[in-house]
Amino acid sequence: MMVVHKDLHVPMRDGVHLAADAYHAEGDEPRPALVALSPYGKELQALALTIPPQKRPSPLWDGCIEAGDISRVVKEGYVHVIGDVRGSGGSEGEHIGNYNAGGVPLGQDAYDFIEWVAAQPWCNGVVGMIGISYFGSMQVFAASERPPSLKAIFVSGGHFDFYETTYHGGVMWFMPRAAREGRGGDSGWAFTHRHKSRMLETYSEEEVKRRVAERLADPDVAAWPNLVHVLNYPIHHESWFDIITNEVDGEWYEEQNPINLAKNIDIPVYLQINQGRGWTLDGTIELFDVLNCPKKLEIGPYPPMQTRPWVDEHDTMFRWYDYWLKGIDNGIMDEPSVKVHVEGTRHWATGEQWPVKDVEYRPLYLRSRGKLAFEPEPYGVEVAHPEGFFQAPLTITDKVEKLSWATEPFEKVTSIHGVGAAHLYVEIDQPDTNFILRFWDEAPSGKRQLVTTGFLKASHNELDERTSEGNPYHPHTRSEPVEPGTINEYVIRIYPFANDFRVGHKLVVELMCNEPLVDDHNSLLPPDAFHLPVGRSVTHTVYRDAKHLSRLVLPFVSVDH
């Protein structure tokens, strides 16, 4: 039998109370607790007790039921404590902005919540945390505050650099709208108290009007009805309004950025993320590199975001917590620090850092007739003609144009592990566009699987001092319109991946400025997991001559591996 403590009132240091439910097995024995915190509502999480795990495209799949398998947590000898952050669910207080609720850092609330849980008679004073996505990010906030009773965390699928959660390469991503408002397979935030826009709270009415007018002047925004609606009527879409009016990185995103806070963490951290969501994988690896504590990184198999209610990764999570919270020596700390599921050959590779194998960056050149090759075009410059595509806005067409290049079938298993870069010399006839790259592993049968992606808004082409060969970084702190008719080199970051291309398989790369709403990859993701299309007609011309060697720079695993 299970004991349930409903509607607990957890006091914060400023007098606000957060709502929580606690689940544990019968008996008076105190147990370690696993805390889950989010704005999605504890009542929604309780559905994990009655709804079997659903895989997409089940209509019962709900991307916000992410606090974990309550029955399993209780069976394993833990107390599962699920709480609502302030301003959501049954909790008091206001929520303003993103990770700063009513002027109170969410990590501070998490500290108070954890210490309250540790002092309850059903808890033995030892606490960990649980949950994927937003729940995972909350663990980093909590650990950075160093609550004494928090002994370890297991972070699955967290979102860290908040700008990179909302704009990929400067291109707006619609998924945060679904997570906040409840659209297409996500119930969204449990807005039961007043939520406030950080922009409306901070700036004068005149400044807000100026920002709104500036965003409405962007043809991409102006062509998307939902964005026009939110900008004119923000009152019920506060968080989404803030995101739309902050199209470049800066103070609003950096406040309470988990990557910046991670240096404060001194307890053991296990990071888990699946391939196929390149942007969150990038942030997870960045967080792993910043951490200075006992740590492990696991990059799991494609595809991501499958089972809801979330029940995945529990076996590893309980091994982690049995070791750190119960003192059971199960050997988990004797295993390698990094574990990666390599797509293609579908095996696990291990090491002490990412990538787990030594790599060397090699170029693959864009060639005529849609070819990718290790050598540039062998003919003269006059033969290496440019190629391109014209994309009309989706207001007048539903066809997404693209260019495609492919290697010859690999004659031996070819391993590519790490981040990469695409150097594209492109002329456009407008001040801006999107560059969207998709990399596929194509079998001889024609069946293909997504390998990774890359995004860049043309006006965000500036690189910063972190950039190295094959590893570009864009600050995204300003937008610089492109001079139409000029040939510019655009360096696009290719998100981390690990893939072994088997004999007979090809690497296929597609370039587009919009993405199809349904294809081999998007059909595996929730609705709204796509990016803001270009709102104007744009002609893209890609150059491949001797002066403009458009190419990919990719991390090939060294032959001695």
UniProtKB/TrEMBL annotation:
It comes from the Bacteria. GO terms for molecular function: dipeptidyl-peptidase activity. Gene3D superfamilies: alpha-amino acid ester hydrolase ( Helical cap domain) (1.10.3020.10), alpha/beta hydrolase (3.40.50.1820), Galactose-binding domain-like (2.60.120.260). Residues 318-553 form the Xaa-Pro dipeptidyl-peptidase C-terminal domain. Signal peptide: none annotated. The keyword Cytoplasm does not apply. Keywords: Hydrolase. The keyword Hydrolase applies. InterPro entries: AB_hydrolase_fold (IPR029058), CocE/Ser_esterase (IPR005674), Galactose-bd-like_sf (IPR008979), Xaa-Pro-like_dom (IPR000383), Xaa-Pro_dipept_C (IPR013736), Xaa-Pro_dipeptidyl-ppase/CocE (IPR050585). PANTHER family: COCE_NOND FAMILY, PUTATIVE (AFU_ORTHOLOGUE AFUA_7G00600)-RELATED (PTHR43056:SF10), PEPTIDASE S9 PROLYL OLIGOPEPTIDASE (PTHR43056). NCBIfam families: CocE_NonD. This is Xaa-Pro dipeptidyl-peptidase C-terminal domain-containing protein.
